[in-house]
Amino acid sequence: MADIWKASPEAHDFPAAFDYLTLLFEDAAARKLVARLRKAPTIHKKAKDLLRACRLPLLPRDNFHVANDLKKIKKGKSLSPVLLVRGNAALDLPLVVADGYHRICASWYRDENIPIACRLVSLQG
């Protein structure tokens, strides 16, 4: 199977991540997290593990954005890596999907065990 992931996130993913992160953190903290996401290496994690860690439900296959990502996968188009902020099990804080929730769900439908490209940073850097 061909890799369905781009090596780097698309430019518009970072402002989207910032917009979401400002709902959870002050602007300055969100800006620092996004700056670190830009520099973080791209790693790979399984869809099933990402969904468990973020505690978000699997979106239905017919969700508009999930369906579009599944079409891209079927056509052989690469998806942008997802942007993540590490949770903390000791504090009962889940993984934060700053950008790419729909891509995680679409990947799960393709195969929950295939690694997903992602950028992951911790709150404390």
What's the short story on this structure?
By secondary structure, this protein is an alpha+beta fold.
Helicity range of the residues?
A: 40-55%
By CATH reckoning, the class would read Alpha Beta
Largest sheet: 4 strands, mixed
Shape: globular
Q: Tally the beta strands.
A: 4
Topology readout:
Blueprint (H helix, E strand, L loop, with lengths): L12 H9 L5 H13 L2 E5 H8 L9 H11 L7 E4 L10 E4 L1 H10 L4 E7 L4
Parallel strand pairs: 2-4
Antiparallel strand pairs: 1-4, 2-3
Helix pairs in contact: 1-2, 3-5, 4-5
Key traits:
globular; 4 strands; 16% strand; 125 residues; alpha+beta; single chain; Conserved hypothetical protein from pyrococcus furiosus pfu- 392566-001, ParB domain
Architecture overview:
Helix content is 41%, strand content 16%. The protein has a 4-stranded mixed beta sheet with strand order 1-4-2-3. The chain has a single domain, classed as Alpha-Beta Complex (Conserved hypothetical protein from pyrococcus furiosus pfu- 392566-001, ParB domain), CATH 3.90.1530. The model has no long low-confidence stretch (mean pLDDT 95). The protein starts with 12 loop residues before the first helix and ends with a strand. Helix 3 packs across helix 5. The longest helix is centred in the first third of the chain and has 13 residues, at 27-39. It is α+β, with helices and mostly antiparallel strands.
